């Protein structure tokens, strides 16, 4: 009976150790490549984006940086602003969370890191209006803004 008990404890210890390795590895990857950097977000074409994918990305980012009202508030603001459409344009507002073009470039510099994006995307984020249509960038900027301000007051839909 005692041998069985020791084997069971050893088995549990191995499972816990392996789980810890996966958790630490996932955190290290997130720290290196940025939040919610899964390949699926990088390679989705315009035709493949759906509200379901945008919602998943919002959930991922809002779980990384807490925002007032949590994930449900972030989803509510995005739904009101754009209907979860990454290419939404309203007056001079762009993307999922409808950023004004004149503020977009400063927000990229303040809330994003170059390492979080492929080189081509980073150039687009810094130099072209269309950078606001990169869903992951638009969402990360928005969630980090709301997190830093602890408010959604920058959005009319809040």
How is this fold's topology laid out?
Blueprint: H1 2-33, H2 39-42, H3 51-64, H4 70-82, E1 89-90, E2 93-94, E3 99-100, H5 101-111, H6 119-127, H7 135-149
Antiparallel strand pairs: 1-2, 2-3
Question: What is the gist of this entry?
Answer:
The protein has 158 residues and is mostly helical. Helix content is 62%, strand content 4%.
Mind explaining what this structure looks like?
- The protein has 158 residues and is mostly helical.
- The protein has 2 domains: 1-33; 36-149, no CATH class.
- It is 62% helix and 4% strand.
- The chain has helices spanning 2-33, 39-42, 51-64, 70-82, 101-111, 119-127, 135-149; strands at 89-90, 93-94, 99-100.
- Strands 1-2-3 form a 3-stranded antiparallel beta sheet.
- A hairpin with a 2-residue loop joins strand 1 and strand 2.
- Helix 3 packs across helix 4, helix 3 (51-64) runs parallel beside helix 7 (135-149) and helix 5 (101-111) crosses helix 7.
């Amino acid at each position: 009976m005692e041998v069985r008990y020791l084997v069971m404890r050893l088995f549990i210890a191995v499972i816990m150790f392996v789980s810890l390795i996966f958790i630490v590895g996932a955190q290290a990857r997130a720290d290196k490549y940025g939040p919610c950097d899964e390949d699926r977000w990088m390679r989705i074409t315009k035709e493949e984006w759906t509200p379901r994918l945008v919602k998943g990305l919002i959930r991922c980012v809002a779980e990384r940086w807490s925002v007032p009202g949590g994930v449900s508030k972030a989803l509510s603001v995005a739904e009101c602003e754009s209907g979860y459409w990454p290419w939404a344009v309203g007056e001079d507002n762009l993307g999922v969370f409808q950023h004004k073009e004149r503020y977009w470039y400063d927000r990229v510099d303040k809330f994003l890191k170059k390492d979080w994006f492929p080189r081509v995307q980073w150039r687009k984020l810094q130099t072209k209006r269309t950078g606001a249509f990169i869903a992951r960038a638009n969402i990360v900027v928005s969630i980090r803004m709301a997190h830093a301000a602890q408010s959604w007051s920058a959005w009319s839909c809040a």
